[in-house]
Amino acid sequence: IRKQDHILDVTVVARKDENAENYLVAYVVSSLQNIDTAVLLDELRKELPDYMIPAGVMQIDSIPMTRNGKVDKRALPVIVRSFVFWIPFSPAFFAVTVPSVIVPALLIQC
User: Fold this and answer.
1) Contact 6, 42 (CB under 8 A)
2) pLDDT tens by residue, 2-32
3) Are residues 45 and 33 in contact, defined by beta-carbon separation less than 8 angstroms?
4) pLDDT exceeds 50 at position 84
């Protein structure tokens, strides 16, 4: 992620969903006003295996740090993963994205 010219800082955190499955979320600080997360994820897919691709990316103003100089994970905004499931529809299948958990948090698409 840091290889992108406009990325100033980044942290990637492992989270657990409601089924206790791990997923990654990335928090980025960028010199751009708004980053295109789809383009960023496409670039990552060119270089990383699927299990290392974050399920979501959120742009924030700065990475919160503890007094000890470590990332303050509790101060990061909550990102809740959504999942894609397939609905059979003759003869093709269509992907539908729904939130995996309904909580007062920011929902993202995988």
Assistant:
1) no
2) 888 899 999 999 988 778 888 899 999 999 9
3) no
4) no
- Tokens found for residue 89: 């529809």
Q: How many CA atoms lie within 13 A of 106 on its CB side?
A: 13
Tokens found for residue 101: 């958990």
Question: Tokens at residue 99, please?
Answer: 């939130």
Report H helices in the chain.
37-47
| Cα 57 versus chain centre, distance | 3
Local structure of residue 43 (DSSP, 8 states): H
Q: Can you read off the two tokens belonging to residue 109?
A: 């698409």
Residue 68: the pLDDT is 95
Q: 27 — phi, psi (to 5°)?
A: -115, 125
Describe the strand order of the beta sheet including 22-30 as a list of residue ranges: 7-16, 22-30, 56-59
Cβ(54)–Cβ(27) below 8 Å: no
